[in-house]
Amino acid sequence: MNKTVTINICGIIFHIEEDAFDKLSKYLNTIKGYFSKADGGNEIMSDIEARIAEMLQSKTSAVKQVVLMSDVDFVIDSMGKPEEFAGDASENNNSSDRGEGYDTYENGEPTKKRLYRDGDSKVLGGVCSGIAHYFGIDPVWLRIALLLMFFFAGTGFLLYIILWIAIPEAKTTTERLAMKGEKADINNISKAVKEEAEQLKKRMEKYGSEFKDMAARNVPRNAVEKTVDFIGDLLLNIGRVLLKIVAIFMVFFGIICFLGLFGTVFGMSFAVGNLEIQEWIDMILLDGSDFYIGLFGIAFFIGIPIIMMIYFGIKLLFKIRYYNRWLNLSAGILWLIGFSMLLYVGIRTGQDFNKVAKVRETISVVPNDTLILKMNEVNINFAELHVSDDSEEGEKDFSVNRRHNNFMIGKHGGVKYLLGYARLNIIKSQTNKIELIVVKEAHGSDKQIAKTRAEHISYNVIQQDSTLLFDNIFKVNDADKYRDQDITVILKLPVGKVIYLDKSLENMIYDLENVTNTYDGDMINRRWMMTENGLKCIDCDGLISVKEHDDDDRDNYIDPNDDSNGNVRINVNGVDINAQDAQIKVDSNGVKINSRESKLTIDKNGVHVKTKNNH
Amino acid sequence: MVNSENTKAQMRKGVLELCILSILSQRDAYPTEIIEKLKETKLVVVEGTLYPLLTRLKNTGLLTYRWEESTSGPPRKYYMLTEIGSSYLKELHLSWYELVDAVNKTINKQD
């Protein structure tokens, strides 16, 4: 008793024994492999199938209904082995495009080698054994290499999957033979490259001499044709080489990018709370789910193009012409999903920045004729700081540079805070009272939320007798998120009142209006009185205002006995350094360096050097 | 030893085209009929040879075909000569006789 299979050949039903069926379908597949590349291959196939149907029909009858192994053998015998007759199909359509890796069997020539997956000796998908065939090496080494690469962020796994998708399986005999064809090891590749170069050279020489001949014989039309041919040929060859280089670059660059991306995504999702950047993301994103949506969004949005780049690089490199529509489609869809995820997170977060609100809080100040303004350095445990601005982690003496959007994340008593630098401004009071106003600013999805957030910002100004201590830093609880919070302290000073700006305030004041237009950096360590027109310095002997300074520039002589105790100014006008014994001045007139012993001047008249001993 | 089978096969292959066109010039036929005729004369050893050849001749415009229902099997593809095919055949006939003549003369001279 034997099992039978029902098959349909050319619309006719046959009951065929299972082993006979296997043989027949293998036979048909082999023929199909031979004719797949020939013109009208499908037609030839259906003609052959029709004939086989006819033959099988003649072998069956009402009494003998089943096709047996012997019948199939008879069919194969009379039809012949594909290698006996298939040459005819490829002979005539091949001559035109040889050398392009066309699979041919005529004249018993070895076929050009192609990369296929070997389904016969596979462990997973036959990728390694296929590549091993291609390079003529033992697949074990490749398997070991891939396995090792697996431990590098799973690159081996990804590469394997991409290769699995990119490389078609060798199904027909043609493909199997092409898979095992002439060895394409490194030697052969370099040989092929050399040959290619040699050929190119020969061709160029040939064209060169032909071109000369043409020119000599004065056959312009032909010469032009030849030139066009030559250029076309040259471009084609250069193009091929470039394409290979691009392909190699695509694969390597893709793998490196993937490693980077994987490292980032992997690191971010598993090393929760231990990375600087993650603290920031926590501060900005609304909640944890947004974080993971964004993470996957990035993985898809960047990862898919990287993977496709590797995929197309491999296809280019090995001239794989097999096209996988589903892969492209699903890659496109995944990319779009990634994009939408990012968009979702982006919009959700962006909306929370939508509205801005300002809250003004007035702090009462006990009036005093001269107020000393100082900065109070907020004591934060910077050893616990995960994120600092420019300074190294744990470094205590960080420089407080007032800049916009200059924030830090720090821990204070176990609670995570967002820290920002406050700014101080001093303006004229309309009343005769000293007023101190703290303007708190924050963003939110609506006015109310923004306002609540602004109110949550903690910031202190303390008065000790005549001294006002301004915190340099404001704190935002991490639950309030980073929403572009800002603190501006406004000191409203009535006319006639005097303040002393302590040196510590240097970086807290920003563009303070004053009657002499003095820069912030020059305003510290001095007393200023509020006048009708603004702040006026009352102990600024020796301080050169910007206006006076401009006039100074016309003066060619720098008084070496200037009694100021040293003055450094670097601004748009140039450099002006006055030390006790030396001056350096660089401005639109040139360079002047004076010291006790010598004098150097570079100006429109040239370079002048004067020393004390040698006039 | 020189493989004479290969040479014979090549010879047969060369004249196969002429034979097919000749058979079809007598009357339209479907592949099985053509094969049977060729088998009678031992011109074809394996049937598979025929199909790519027929397709090629059809694609170059020498042959065309029509479908005919069969009472006993799948529909049959009846091949027939086109006008180009007929004139092509005449040319082949001429050169065939020339060739046979030339070959005979050469062979006989060497005897």
Task: Jot down its keywords.
heterodimer, A: 615 residues, alpha+beta, six-stranded mixed β-sheet, 17 helices, elongated, B: mainly alpha, Arc Repressor Mutant, subunit A, two-stranded antiparallel sheet, 2 strands, 11% strand, globular
SSE map:
The complex is a heterodimer of chains A (615) and B (111).
Chain A: E1 4-9, E2 12-17, H1 18-35, H2 41-59, E3 66-67, H3 69-79, H4 82-85, H5 87-94, H6 127-135, H7 139-150, H8 155-166, H9 173-180, H10 186-217, H11 220-270, H12 276-284, H13 288-317, H14 325-351, E4 355-363, E5 370-376, E6 407-412, E7 415-421, E8 423-428, E9 435-444, H15 447-456, E10 461-464, E11 467-471, E12 473-477, E13 486-493, E14 498-501, H16 520-523, E15 526-531, E16 534-537, H17 546-552, E17 567-571, E18 574-578, E19 582-587, E20 590-595, E21 598-603, E22 606-611
Parallel strand pairs in A: 2-3, 5-11, 5-14, 8-13
Antiparallel strand pairs in A: 1-2, 4-9, 6-7, 7-12, 9-13, 10-11, 14-15, 15-16, 17-18, 18-19, 19-20, 20-21, 21-22
Helix pairs in contact in A: 1-2, 1-3, 2-3, 6-7, 7-8, 8-13, 10-11, 11-13, 13-14
Chain B: H1 4-26, H2 31-40, H3 50-59, E1 63-68, E2 76-81, H4 83-110
Antiparallel strand pairs in B: 1-2
Helix pairs in contact in B: 1-4
